[in-house]
Hints:
Layout: E1 9-14, H1 29-47, H2 54-64, H3 75-85, E2 89-93, H4 96-99, H5 106-120, E3 127-129, H6 138-152
Parallel strand pairs: 1-2, 2-3
Amino acid sequence: xxxxxxxxxDIDGHVLIEAAPGWQEYFExxxxxxxxxxLLENRRHWYSREGQGADEISQSxxxxxxxxxxxxWDPKARLxxxxxxxxxxxxxxxxxxxxxxxxxxxxICRGYNRWLADYCAADPERLWGVALLPLEDxxxxxxxxxxxxxxxx
Length: 153
């Protein structure tokens, strides 16, 4: 990866997987249900009404997160904004999943990292994802980091 010395790099970008259509497909069924439960509990008071499911929650998040732009879940939208703002590269961190939930199981990390790899595949030279790792299990963290380097590099 060649980065020009004068390149503009956003070192604190974020993605919003929980707003991305079809995000559940990146997780094993049990992990998707556990993650959905955590998302529903954590986001319901901000984004939704009682009784909504994951798809409705995702739609509510998308509608209310417009202030941050669709680039949180749509890489093409992010690339367009980056072009408009003169940003050459962005380092991408998670939002809700990685920063506020107790979703650090190896399986949750694998699903998130698969989704992030697909997001970054829109332009891997410009979109740089930071892998989510299981912080309470150092061996699992090393395994997941190795898997990400091997599978997605």
